[in-house]
Write a structure and sequence with these properties.
The complex is a heterodimer of chains A (150) and B (204). By secondary structure, chain A is mainly α. Helices cover 66% and strands 0% of the residues of chain A. Chain A is built from 5 helices and no strands. The longest helix of chain A is centred in the middle third of the chain and has 34 residues, at 38-71. Chain B is α/β, with parallel strands linked by helices and 204 residues long. In chain B, 34% of the residues lie in helices and 25% in strands. The chains are: A mainly alpha (150), B alpha/beta (204). The interface between A and B is large, with 43 and 43 residues.
Chain lengths: 150, 204
């Protein structure tokens, strides 16, 4: 009976833990937005695009880490599942970053700055295509086009 | 007695459950810092090129999470760009920033994991190499149980947080110094600088 209780306790801990890290989202609207120069708008926009790339790469790493955690059950027991990450933090950060860049684009247009490129429509289409390719890869066990993040 | 044995077993399994992973660039980037003051001081915008970044340590998966030199370089580069300090064309920047990640002071284990990062920052004139700004920033950051149940993951989060606030502190210190000591023009002497000043910041 005690063994069952301890097992349940361990499972409870795993369920509590396997939600990943806390999200560190960028603020979509910031107090100094109206004061930003065209240079600052473009710099921040390009930096955010890089961040989007890093987050997407981390998401790919997370998927392989999760596979490793599941496989680790055979070696280390169910405690290995504590390393599972559901990816919600990555998703929240990515969504916020895209929304922030749409805000920066809007500000640039309002201020008469050069358009910020590539547009977020293009970036989002690229993200969707890469996600579809990865899903196809998982289904077929073969790499699909666009599976790699630039 | 058997309950204690089981608890110890669970604790061991939890402790061994994951290998150490290196710090993530996106989690170490400060994002845009001090945007308003940078907006008000047009000359500071695009004033920096990121030069050599040294220090740090690669992660051994069987030991503790660390901050690698390449990841630190990328995080610094991205933070400077987000803040509007990085020049679009590096050759056009009047100043060059070099950084050395001297130390990541980490505990081996603990419920609250506090990591203190020590980074030397130095800004020199592109032409002539005269020093303009030099400061060592020592910044602590704590990750607790609510951040991650796994010790290795808490350490990783504390590493990332410590670097993030360290970079953020550098941007704020640099902007303040720039406003108080505008760079010299046309042969005028540079300000004395904050030579070898050490700031101990306790954040989070």
């Amino acid at each position: 009976m005690r063994v069952q209780t301890m097992g349940l306790l361990a499972l409870g801990l795993i369920v509590l833990a396997a939600c990943g890290r806390p999200a560190n989202e960028v603020q979509v609207t910031q107090s100094s937005d109206e004061r930003l120069s065209c240079f600052q708008l473009n710099s921040q926009y390009q930096a955010n695009l890089d961040a989007v790339g890093f987050i997407r790469q981390e998401d790919i790493n997370r998927e392989s880490d999760n596979l490793g955690a599941v496989a680790g059950v055979l070696v280390m027991g169910v405690g290995s599942l504590l390393a599972l990450d559901d990816g919600s933090a990555n998703e929240a950060e990515l969504t916020a970053m895209i929304a922030r860049n749409r805000r920066l684009s809007s500000l640039a247009e309002t201020k008469g700055c050069d358009p910020l490129l590539p547009t977020m429509d293009t970036v989002e289409a690229d993200i969707a295509a890469a996600a579809a390719a990865r899903a196809a890869e998982r289904d077929q066990g073969q790499p699909g086009p666009g599976a790699n993040v630039d | 007695m058997r309950v204690i044995g089981y608890l110890a077993l669970v604790a061991c399994v939890v402790g061994l459950a994951a290998c150490a992973k290196p710090a993530r660039v996106a989690q170490m980037s400060s994002g845009a810092v001090d945007s308003a003051r940078i907006a008000d001081n047009a000359t500071i915008q695009g004033s920096l090129e990121l030069g050599p970044v040294t220090g740090g340590e690669e992660t051994n998966p069987l030991w503790t999470s660390e901050v690698g030199p390449a990841e630190f370089h990328q995080a610094l580069d991205q933070s400077l760009q987000a803040s509007g300090l990085l020049a679009v064309a590096p050759d056009s920047a009047p100043f060059v920033l070099t950084a050395n990640l001297v130390e990541m002071d980490q505990p081996l284990f603990g419920a609250d994991v506090r990591v203190t990062s020590t980074v030397d920052y130095e800004v020199t004139e592109r032409v002539g190499g005269a020093p303009y700004f030099k400061k060592t920033l020592v910044v602590g950051y704590t990750a607790d149980f609510s951040d991650a149940l796994l010790g290795v993951e808490r350490l990783r989060l504390a590493n990332e947080g410590s670097i993030r606030v360290n970079i953020s502190a550098f941007v704020q210190e640099f902007v303040t110094f720039w406003i108080e000591n505008p760079p010299a023009k046309d042969g005028m002497p540079l300000p004395d600088g904050s030579d070898a000043a050490v700031s101990l910041l306790q954040l989070n």
